[in-house]
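FORM 12-B: Structure-to-Sequence Request
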């Protein structure tokens, strides 16, 4: 028996990185997974490998959400879970951030999360689950990622409000808050066919050895396991909460 047997779960940003690992783990635990992304070639290939459904989904477009959920209901007849994983990151100082760049990040990270809950919750079976991807930066500040941090703070607010409003239907809403994770967002070598991503991983481990108590960058599989916990009955009495997965980074800085 898998932890998600019989459940239908949509995972956004599922073509690669954290979303890919969430899709893989959820299928392994018995779920019917909908792989949702704008990276059509990668998303379709993953869905075919997993025996899942692929849908093209720009999370910032309400019409895309409606179409994706309609396709989910046609294929599986129900919806039990949503993982709002899709997100983008831009580096810039606050005063140098163009408004267009700010709004681009807001549209994906914040509006995308809002639209996901807004459109999925009415279609979701009672007792469903929503897992929103926030960030370590949703709970603290970090220079050069002000726009990203602002949107992730907003995701936590949306998570708490949704948890209150959907509790009567036993729909639980929680947030994962990853620190630095070894995906293309933190390791651009994963997007370069000529690069060695594992070499970059070793370099990142060395960098984070000095910053993170557990001494390395996180792995997307670890975030997937947390998302599984929040989607399964293992977390049946938990809602409205942020779950930090950062190797202890948020705990503070050691001077020893």
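FORM 12-B RESPONSE
SEQUENCE OUT:
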């Amino acid at each position: 028996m898998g932890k998600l047997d019989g459940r239908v779960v949509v995972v956004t940003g599922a073509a690669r990185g954290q979303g890919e690992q969430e899709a893989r783990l959820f299928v392994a635990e018995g779920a019917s997974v909908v792989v949702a992304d704008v990276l059509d070639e990668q998303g379709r290939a993953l869905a075919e490998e997993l025996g899942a459904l692929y849908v093209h989904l720009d999370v910032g477009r309400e019409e895309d959400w409606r179409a994706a959920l309609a396709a989910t209901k046609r294929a599986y007849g129900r919806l039990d879970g949503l993982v709002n994983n899709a997100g983008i990151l831009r580096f810039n100082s606050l005063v140098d951030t163009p408004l267009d760049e700010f709004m681009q990040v807001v549209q994906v990270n914040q509006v995308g999360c809002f639209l996901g809950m807004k459109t999925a919750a009415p279609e979701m079976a009672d007792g469903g689950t929503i897992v929103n991807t926030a960030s370590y930066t949703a709970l603290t500040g970090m220079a050069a990622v002000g726009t990203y941090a602002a949107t992730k703070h907003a995701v936590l607010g949306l998570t708490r409000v949704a948890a209150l409003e959907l509790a009567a239907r036993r729909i639980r809403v929680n947030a994962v808050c990853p620190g630095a994770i070894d995906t293309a967002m933190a390791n651009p070598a994963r997007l370069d066919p000529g690069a060695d991503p594992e070499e970059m991983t070793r370099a990142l481990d060395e960098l984070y050895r000095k910053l993170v108590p557990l001494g390395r960058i996180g792995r997307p599989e670890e975030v997937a396991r947390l998302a599984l916990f929040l989607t399964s009955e293992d977390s049946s009495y938990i809602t409205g909460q942020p779950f930090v997965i950062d190797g202890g980074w948020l705990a503070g800085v050691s001077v020893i």
